[in-house]
């Protein structure tokens, strides 16, 4: 038995002498990236070429709107369809949606943002309604989390539909604008 202890100690001691550079020669695994392109956007909130996709360094993405504003007792909506492509051998899920809006509401007014998101051929991933009351002026951010994670098919190219509605009620001077919709960092799994 004493000889066994010496052998184990020698092996452990030897493994500590391995240079650190050989252990770090394997690069850390990075998650794949999504490829996104807007196929179509339509509705009173996003007429002709007023939306764009901005990929983020984190691997997520933001949809930007120009001119998606409502005033008085009115509403506008936009449905955007984007092609989302995952890398071969991977499946992904979008864990959250955050809307960046601005409001100018007096004490008698409200603003509502209704968000729906789904992949073509799949049930609703997100269906959410957020409301705020005046008086309020400035930024108003809302977020929604899917009730159940929806995973894409393996390495698939899917069409993602995002439907946004902005509504104001109350004073004619009330105003709300949707500036951007940002998707949370995708979750990945090998398939």
From TrEMBL:
Pfam families from the UniProt entry: DUF4360
Alphabetical keyword list: Signal
Record flagged with keyword Iron: no
Keyword Signal: yes
Signal peptide: 1-25
Top-level taxon of the source organism: Bacteria
PANTHER family from the UniProt entry: PSEUDOURIDINE SYNTHASE RSUA_RLUA-LIKE DOMAIN-CONTAINING PROTEIN (PTHR38847:SF1), PTHR38847
Name of the protein in question: Secreted protein
The organism of origin for this protein: Actinoplanes missouriensis (strain ATCC 14538 / DSM 43046 / CBS 188.64 / JCM 3121 / NBRC 102363 / NCIMB 12654 / NRRL B-3342 / UNCC 431)
